[in-house]
Amino acid sequence: MSKTVLNLVMTFDGFVAGEHDEMDWLHKIHKRPTGSAKWDLSTFTSQVGAIIVGRRSYELGIAQGWFKNEAYGPSPIFVLCESVPANLSHDADFRFVSTGIQDAHRQASETAGDKWIYLFGGPNVFQQFLNEDLVDEMRITIAPILIGKGIRLFHNLTKRHIELEKINVTDHPNGMIETNYRIMK
Ligand SMILES: NC(=O)c1ccc[n+]([C@@H]2O[C@H](COP(=O)([O-])OP(=O)(O)OC[C@H]3O[C@@H](n4cnc5c(N)ncnc54)[C@H](OP(=O)(O)O)[C@@H]3O)[C@@H](O)[C@H]2O)c1
Predict the structure, then answer these.
(1) Rounded to whole angstroms, what are the CA distances from 157 to 6, 81, 129, 161?
(2) Which of 51, 121, 145, 181 is geometrically suited to a Cys-Cys bond with 164, CB 3.0 to 4.6 A?
(3) Are 73 and 46 in contact (CB under 8 A)?
(4) Taking 90 as the threshold, does the pLDDT of residue 83 lie above it?
(5) Residue 135 above 70 pLDDT?
(6) What pLDDT sits at residue 176?
(7) Three-state SS for 47?
(8) Residues of 63-74 as b/e, b for ≥16 C-beta within 10 angstroms?
(9) Rounded Cα–Cα distance for residues 36 and 127 (Å)
(10) Helix intervals (H) in 7-165
(11) Which of 32-36, 51-55, 150-154, 158-162 has the lowest mean pLDDT?
């Protein structure tokens, strides 16, 4: 049975991007002289059998080449969308799902088998998965920077409390803190 794991980078004040989708804050951290330990995903992606991404992250990603050269591993990428985009990219094995999150999750589970489902985000898709109890684990890398405003990761949550159990925390020389929490159900 596969598990569904959110994995992304968030600013210390809780944003995954600036107001206009800026990721310059992350590049700034990666440029720090102590920054040899970048956000290395290869150990994680070797365990992954399917990826789920929202339409906005897909569009931004193909515009900026994020998905090229199996940057997130070789797994098929399920794109949640209202309708199949006109702009079809061949940067990865994209599969478009316009039948809702439960169906996207079912298709990804079937594809992943015993491997994990990598919930890529963005927040819109993540919040729906969280509200439907479809997330098992969160791997959130906290970037040591404040940006004040932007796209919040934790927003529109329908439950008053969601309890977490710590699995692991790793700190990196560039100030990034990788947190790994299980969602208690
Ligand atoms: N820091 C990080 O590590 C990280 C990681 C990932 C993303 N991000 C950032 O997150 C931002 C994008 O996140 P976002 O929350 O705005 O958008 P998103 O979750 O990437 O995509 C949302 C879109 O997905 C489609 N969608 C979502 N749920 C759906 C459903 N149930 N049925 C059908 N379609 C559905 C809709 O698109 P349509 O209606 O157009 O079809 C919706 O507008 C970007 O700035 C990106 O850079 C950051």
Answers:
(1) 15, 21, 10, 9
(2) 181
(3) yes
(4) yes
(5) yes
(6) 92
(7) coil
(8) eeebbeeeebbe
(9) 32
(10) 24-30, 42-45, 55-64, 101-112, 123-131
(11) 32-36
Tokens coding 15: 């944003």
Residue predicted with more confidence, 38 or 163 = 163
d(CA 38, CA 82): 34
Sheet holding 94-97, edge to edge: 94-97, 77-80, 48-54, 116-121, 4-11, 137-143, 177-183, 164-171
**Is the CB–ligand 1 distance for residue 121 below 6 Å?**
yes
Phi, psi of 124, deg, nearest 5: -55, -50
User: What is the residue type of 108?
Assistant: A
Out of 7, 26, 52, 57, mutate this one to test ligand 1's pocket (max ligand atoms within 8 Å of CB): namely 57
The CATH number assigned to the domain with range 4-183 reads 3.40.430.10
Cα first-last separation, the chain: 16
**Ramachandran angles phi, psi of 105, nearest 5°:** -65, -40
